Amino acid sequence: MNIAYRAVVLSSLLYCCESWCLYRRQLRKLEQFHMRCLWNIDMLERCQSDSIEATLVKHQFRWVGYVIRMPDTPLPMRIFYGQLPGGGRSQGGQLLRYKDVLKRNLKACDIPAKSLESLAQDRSLWRTTSRGAVAASETSRTDHLRQVCDRCKARTVQQRVDGLQCRTCVRLCGSRIGLFAHERSHRKMD
Known about the structure:
By secondary structure, the chain is mostly helical. The chain has helices at about 1-15, 25-40, 40-45, 50-70, 75-80, 100-110, 115-120, 125-165, 175-190.
């Protein structure tokens, strides 16, 4: 299943993702789809698959390195480094630009933006650096998700023990409504 999922579904879903400027809500939707397909974090690790965010960052870093190493004449290089001679950005919430997404991803992976060009000039160094940084970022992200999940589970268990226990017979109920109905049954018996 994993090979077919990667080959067919992910490649279709992430076609041309190197140039996407995704907002967090769009990224969350893609992650939800990915998790629905793989069920949960445990299955993600068992399949040895990365999250959608890590996959997108890897693709973006690979493409940025390729563009930086291009000679000065091709169009992608000129567009990547180009600036508009006039005009400005309007007030209020701005549309996300590719440069903004790239800076956000570099910051998340602890790669200094000032050293991007020097790192990307050497292909093997850039590949090693970017993959290692994305892997470290992904590890910290999954650790954080596990901690959040564990806290939520612990809170649920604590709520059951603290707030959903019958005072008369010490029975644990699954919800407040269930506890109320159960305690009402004790009152009917009296």
